[in-house]
Amino acid sequence: MPNVTELSVVVPIYDEEESLPVLYGEIAAVLDGMGLTGRRSEIIFVDDSSQDASLHIMLELRARDPRVRVVKFRRNFGQTAALAAGFDIARGRVVATLDGDLQNDPAEIPRMLEELNRGYDVVAGWRRKRRDAFVLRRLPSVVANRLIALFTGVPIHDTGCTLKVFRRELVKSMSIYAEQHRFLPILSAGRGARVREMEVNHRPRRFGKSKYGLGRATRVLLDLLVVKMIAQFSRRPLQYFGILSLGSFVIGGLFGFAALFGPTFGARSSSGSPPDQFHFGDWEMAICTILLLFFALFVYFALLGLLGELAVKASGMHRRSTLDRILNELH
Amino acid sequence: MALDPDLRSSAAVADAGAPRGAVALDEGAWAGVEELDVTIVVPVLAEDAEVAQVVEALGSELDHEGRTWECIFVFDGVAGESFERVRAMRGQYGGRVRSISFKNPFGESVCLSAAVEQARGRYLITSPQYVQIDPVELRPMLAALDGGADFVTPWRHPRVDPWLARLQSAAFNFVIRQIIRMNFHDLNCYFRAIRREVLEDVAVYGDMYRFLPVIAFRQGYRVVEVKVRHLKEWGTGGFFGLGIYARRFLDVLAVMFLTKFTLKPLRFFGMIGGAFSLIGAGICTWLAIKKLFFAVGLSGSPLMLLGVLLIVLGVQILGFGLVGEIIIFSQARNLKEYRIERIYDRPEPPEREEEAPPGGDRPSIG
What we know:
The complex is a heterodimer of chains A (331) and B (366).
Chain A: E1 7-13, H1 19-33, E2 41-47, H2 54-64, E3 68-73, H3 79-89, E4 94-97, H4 109-117, E5 122-126, H5 134-152, E6 164-167, H6 168-173, H7 184-190, E7 195-199, H8 220-232, H9 237-261, H10 263-270, H11 282-315, H12 317-320, H13 323-330
Parallel strand pairs in A: 1-2, 1-4, 2-3, 5-7
Antiparallel strand pairs in A: 4-6, 5-6
Chain B: H1 5-10, E1 12-15, E2 36-44, H2 51-65, E3 69-76, H3 81-88, H4 90-93, E4 97-102, H5 108-118, E5 121-126, H6 138-146, E6 151-156, H7 163-180, E7 192-195, H8 196-201, H9 212-218, E8 223-228, H10 242-261, H11 265-294, H12 303-331, E9 340-344
Helix pairs in contact in B: 7-10, 11-12
């Protein structure tokens, strides 16, 4: 089968008119080096409604090289949407993703492919030596990544690196939205994929300036809750809510314990007055209030979990989950 | 467009209005008909609708511009006089005037969807059941569509209705602008010019047709506002009832939520829940400090209860967000976040330009 597309390189582009020619040159050189000419590879540029001449340059590149495919968005939809669109139209048996700003080095792709062939489904880049400002970019990233790894149990050092290589079956079975591109390795692991991390070369920015700031770090906490849930419990939400429910129960129980055996218990008995079942002291009152409300949460979360089960059931998602089997058959 | 079965049965193409033999009346014939330039869609909500005047005014303007057109009246649970008038127009306009009628009222959103299913025009013009806007204004609106816009929304300026109606409308639009942060001045006017693909793509339901420009914009379509000359207004005297205000407010809330947070419900619920919990935690901390260091009793005031209640309420709201995330994740396949304008693909029929080199030196991938 001479015309099978082996490799699709997906690159989201937003205002990268200066980087584009260089980037294309590098990717094309890598593909040529691997012997992937003609229809055996493709470069998918997803134009996220750039304001500058990016689209024009992409179309010129396409006129020169039949491997180039260009997707133009109606308006700016963000990097996740751009990657999702690339995944949707990719034809390659392997899909690689790259940033458009030249900070990722396409020359790493052949190495990553080799790694993939050792029996992994995803190979994610790890920018160990990042060439970015420390306080604004590296520190928040390190903290966020540590939190993510700790919380989800997927030992990844750098989920934010766009340079990744995926097996086709994986990207075709995932629908990413919102800002999930940052959590792709975790979402993949949640789907039963074998995830491998690999150190990659990271280069300083040559053109333009960073399109991200510190602001996004504030959302990490909420994102964590979501990613944990959809990566690991999307098929059985009751279990996730069950944990929250049990947590509330335990906290409520601790307060109950404190009410029974806490310092106020001793204080009351030492006061000498006969204990009165219907008259609570100050601390007892507080503790009982808290205890009752936590028990309310305990019931509430359990019911929410049932609601979640209902949503999953209604979507038919539980029946679609054949990915694990497919990936296993591949190896 | 998804119509529920109940609706499908009662929404019947009642009348194609063509002389027998020229255009067949059954649905099968719609498919074969050539494409037109413009379809005028008029939801008819009242028996005394000025159907003839609408066709007359808009039709002659379109004829004047040399655009082919048709007009679809959708009778939303209304029959009687206006229905007879449309029937009577057959003699003059033939198959260009058609009607769809619902047995029960379903609202303007459903009217619009039903008409889109039947429309043959590349552009759709939605018009109220009377001549609200000077027909001459069709020219700039259609010109905008010709120029690449996908959706033209009107801005009645200056308006002719009483000051009270104007004031209420202005207030409504001002609030909307603040909430949605989009610069539309007049969402209450339904004299719109829309490319048909937009309506085939953007689903509306309930009272959402009011916010159609906003929703279309969020989906990535180019929405343009055009100032138009206002001729008259039907039945907007006095204050709107309290119920209407409440409904509008809920609509705004729904649109804001759906346009911004559909794909990340936890951001919305998390923000609200987090705020509640923080306030609650603040109250509790303050009380604890007072108790510990200043020996002020806890049970003297209901603040304690309020504080803990706020914390729990906040956590519960967060829980709603999590269920929302599950719903969205399980439906992610059906909700495409992006809209592609065009794919510049490689030239399709492969002309055997590049045969792959024979087996040996081919790197194996995957």
